[in-house]
Amino acid sequence: MPGARETGLVGAALAFTGGVACALCYLTQKTTQQEPKKKPKEEPKEKPEHEHKASKTETARKTPLITEPRTAGTQVLVLGLDGAGKTSLLHCFATGSLEQDVSPTQGFNAVSINKEDLQIEFLEIGGSEKLREYWRMYLSKARVLVFVVDSSDPERFPLAKHHLQQLLSADPGLPLVLLANKQDVSGARGITDLYEALDLGNVGDGHQLSVIGTQVKKGKCEINAGVQDARDLIIEMMANH
Ligand SMILES: Nc1nc2c(ncn2[C@@H]2O[C@H](COP(=O)(O)OP(=O)(O)OP(=O)(O)O)[C@@H](O)[C@H]2O)c(=O)[nH]1
Ligand SMILES: [Mg+2]
């Protein structure tokens, strides 16, 4: 089972690095620019949950929307399909635990975290089909994009890939932190599978990329090292600008 294999790899890495319970990789992206396609395909209409098929989704490369310097952004933009775990993760980042059930985000969810004299604004936009069309409008204020994927739902990887690639094409300089969430679910795919399924090796355009496995369980996120590492990394990225 791929999930189990990945878990083994992650486990080995952990032992090696002194017990970090997630895998974290920084990847230097290719600097080659991809030619925009002449006729980008229309965004596929989302099928009902039970009908999602793992089909090959073509990357739609469009003219970049964002051209201003990256330092213009002040927010951490948190996106990902509905149910991926964005709100749960943000709650953990902010409070160190998750005590209550979360509801689907109907619009946006703003969370602020203070770390010494740094105040970091996280902005989640809900991942339902209707809200996804607004995602790109928030890119201009983003300094970092956190994209959350439900690692236990491979049938939706092509849809997640489609949206992620659209965002990255619209803002070629945007640093990306990909969170492979729900690692606790049996059969969840590991970060290597996610990397391949979302075609991250082909992102190009000099995106700074990190991939981290995370899991959020009610009342337990404070002990999940992946969540801690993700939080620390994002704070570091925001502090270093
Ligand atoms: N097992 C498990 N469940 C999780 C995890 N993260 C989130 N969930 C559950 O997944 C469901 C959806 O979580 P949300 O945080 O609301 O997801 P979201 O990405 O904010 O979804 P939208 O707001 O609809 O876009 C909830 O029932 C969470 O409890 C995880 O790591 N493991
Ligand atoms: Mg939400």
TrEMBL record:
It comes from Danio rerio (Zebrafish). This is ADP-ribosylation factor-like protein 9. Residues 31-64 are annotated as: Disordered. InterPro entries: Arf-like_GTPase, P-loop_NTPase, Small_GTPase_ARF/SAR. PANTHER family: ADP-RIBOSYLATION FACTOR-LIKE PROTEIN 9, ADP-RIBOSYLATION FACTOR-LIKE PROTEIN 9-RELATED. Pfam families: Arf. Residues 35-61 have a biased composition (Basic and acidic residues). The keyword Magnesium applies. GO terms for molecular function: GTP binding; GTPase activity; metal ion binding. Transmembrane segments: none annotated. GTP binds at G80, L81, D82, G83, A84, G85, K86, T87, G127, N181, K182, Q183, D184. Mg(2+) binds at T87, T105. GO terms for biological process: nervous system development. The keyword Nucleotide-binding applies.
